[in-house]
Amino acid sequence: MAFTQAQLQTELDSSGLNCIITKFDNTSSASFTDVGVQNMNTSAKKTGIVQVAQSNTAAQAAAAILTALT
User: pLDDT of 15-67, one tens digit each?
Assistant: First the structure.
């Protein structure tokens, strides 16, 4: 795995969006991590689970998640 939950949370925090990781499961697949995130900045508190390739860096994973949640 190329990134940890802590590294990913740091990247999400640096985005300025108040995103909280609610799920971090890297056991479901050998090549993907399922990441559940809630975007606290939107009035609807948009939430979702994004499947991110484990070969990504934390910055790449955060970018994919932010794209899915905005």
Answer: 887 889 999 998 766 788 899 998 887 676 788 899 999 899 999 999 999 88
SS3 32: strand
pTM confidence score:
0.83
By the 8 A CB rule, do 39 and 46 touch? yes
H-type alpha helices, the chain: 5-14, 58-69
3: left (phi over 0), alpha (psi -120 to 50) or beta: beta
Residues 6 or more apart in contact with residue 58 via CB below 8 angstroms: 2, 3, 4, 7, 8, 10, 11
